Amino acid sequence: MSSLVGSLVAWIRRLVGCGGSTPAADAGSAGPWGGAMAVQNVHEEYEYVAGQRCPRCGGTYSVRSQALMESRDGRHHLDVLRVKCEGCGHETSFEFNIDAVWEQYDEPSGDES
Question: Which SS3 state, helix, strand or coil, does residue 82 take?
């Protein structure tokens, strides 16, 4: 039961941008994704995750999956890295605001000739 409470607390902290496992952006750039840290490239995301330690055992994380997400109106974009602790197996995710660099990920929808 305590792991459920811990997960809930971490989720709430991410939503309000006060710590937890999601990198918090400065207040001026948090934008529509709450506490998601704005990044300029994927390397920054992986570098951030490499510097984080599991709150349960102090172990390092390995990335299990990566997903690009788009808001319903198509104006905002998020990259989510799902990670697992190498020490104890604890899983969490890190969210990154990629609005500033979305064009490099966005593929053309077709031939416009």
Answer: strand
CA–CA dist 94, 23 (Å, integer): 7
Q: What confidence tens digit (pLDDT) does each residue in 89-112 have?
A: 999 999 999 998 887 766 555 555
Write down the pTM of the prediction: 0.64
In angstroms, rounded to a whole number, what is the distance separating the alpha carbons of residues 34 and 14?
A: 8
If you classify domain 2-105 with CATH, what class do you get? Answer: mainly beta
Domain assignments of the chain as residue spans, ordered by start: 2-105
Q: What is the pLDDT of residues 32-70, one digit of tens each?
A: 556 788 999 999 999 999 999 999 999 999 999 999 998
What torsion, rounded to 10 degrees, do the Cα atoms 39, 65, 48, 55 define? Answer: 140
